Amino acid sequence: MSPELINLIVQATFESLYMVGIAALLGTAFGLPLGVFLATSRKGELFAAPTVNRVLGIVVNATRSTPFIILVVAIIPFTRLIAGTSIGSTAAIVPLVIASTPFIARLVEAAIREVDGGLIETASSFGASPIQIVLKVLIPEALPGLLLALTLAVVSLLGYSAMVGAVGGGGLGDLGIRYGYQRFMPEMMLAVVVVLIALVQLVQSAGDYLARRVNRRLRHR
Amino acid sequence: MKAASMNAHPSLVIGQPVEIPDAAAEPEAMVRFESISKTYPAYRGKPGVDALQGIDFAIARGSITGVIGRSGAGKSSLVRLINGLEKPTTGRVVVDNKDISALTGRELRLAQRSIGMIFQHFNLLSSRTAADNIALPLEIAGWSKADIKARVAELLDLVGIADKHDRYPSELSGGQKQRVGIARALATRPSVLLSDEATSALDPQTTRAILDLLANINRELGVTIVLITHEMSVVRQLAKEVFVLDAGHVVESGHVADIFTHPKHPITQSFLAEVTGDSLPVSLASRIVQEPGSHAVIRVQVRGAGAGDTLIARLARELGLDVSLLSARIDEIGGQHVGSLVLGIPLGISGGEGATTRTLAWLSQYQFPAERLGYVA
């Protein structure tokens, strides 16, 4: 493979990492509070707001069931409003964040719901405010689950990021389609797939490692 | 509580810590339930539940008081009313002269810091070490790092696990976990410590050690301890006063020794039976028949200080009988002997019941409740 092509792959890898990295950060920034709220706002819970909970749940489900490629196209005007353009890696971050936020929120919700309800009662019994309960009890106790959720989100984002090539988003998926498929360069297609597999492996291993490190529950048993 | 003073009571102003004007009348009460009822409304097809009704009692300052009941008797509701996690449907709960049932939000959270609680399943954070678990209520109360560090060291010492400072709960035994729980509950120097079945998940030996620790804490720190339990043995070992809860009502209350030497309510009697062992040893029970044999079997209830010490000797001497002891179980509750003796009374050669009749008459004369269980061959 020529140095030019290798250069292309390296460049595309950085584009993908940029999109996924920023999207994961923003997706977590929005998805974590949303997920915590979804997990604590049913009737009788910490931030009880059953109606808001139900409405948010419907919005989250709707976003999650829209196929990503349709979401990307449908929100082009919104993307242009936020990013100033609808083409390029930066513009691609907008749909990636919109798709990953509800996904992360649901994973966070599941992880938070795993925390023993007795701990909430315990913290309340010594006068913790709802915010203190979230920050000092729920999130630290759910941390292993949250890290695994985040890992899953990053892996999915890598998959999504391959699709934004369709609207000029750049990245590895774009490279694979344009060179590997449209220009009949199977070795390019293979190289892209190999890099993606390596990235997913890396992310998953790192996530598993971190989750294990912070998990004190099962040690020494 | 007079109805007139109730109407104008400042506790109706929500959000204000209320000094109770007539507290002086009962200065010794740390926790006072005033005409409490608690009803859980029907929800999603489940019918409503009257968890507590007509609860009206006080827990003395500095005391160790037991609240005993079967599951579903309303014990959990009672605890949750004391620490303000739930509001009564009617009436009010006064803790340390504050009407906790009228407080909300920040005021309630401040008041809750003076009420510590320990739990059956310890409820420690798995992500924090023993020291950091104890630090949690102090962090919540906004203590400085240095103050927290000093206080935590003090508490670990108090509960006897200074060496477990950096251990996570998964590395601790049940008893050690409960010690962390106790230290955590005492961190903010509460005036009341609620123990919600705190020893129910522990083995008998560890239970005894934890109860000893609680007794020490009560003695040295003067903390009022409320023991919520379904275990007679816990109340017996620690409490001076006991309230027996059944189906949302207090059915009996008073000094532990009085209640358990002269139980009136069937529930109390059933709790007592767990200790005194009204059930016979299997080997004896299988031998008892209803047709006359060589001996009549009589069970005698023994209650009171020194009661029963010389019972067999006197019975044998005064009635001239070769009384045999088939089974006995005597325990001590608050300095009083409580238990039962199962005696074998020899029948006459021709199967005469004379000795049995005389024995029963003699026992009733000295006010020992007795009953004939049957005969053994």
UniProtKB/TrEMBL annotation, chain A:
SUPFAM superfamilies: MetI-like. The keyword Transmembrane helix applies. One of its GO terms (cellular component) is plasma membrane. It is a multi-pass membrane protein. Residues 13-205 form the ABC transmembrane type-1 domain. InterPro entries: AA_ABC_Transporter_Permease, MetI-like, MetI-like_sf. Keywords: Cell membrane, Membrane, Transmembrane, Transmembrane helix, Transport. GO terms for biological process: D-methionine transmembrane transport. It comes from the Bacteria. It is found in: Cell membrane. The chain crosses the membrane at residues 17-40, 52-76, 82-105, 146-168, 188-211. NCBIfam families: PRK10782.1. Belongs to the binding-protein-dependent transport system permease family. CysTW subfamily. This is ABC transporter permease.
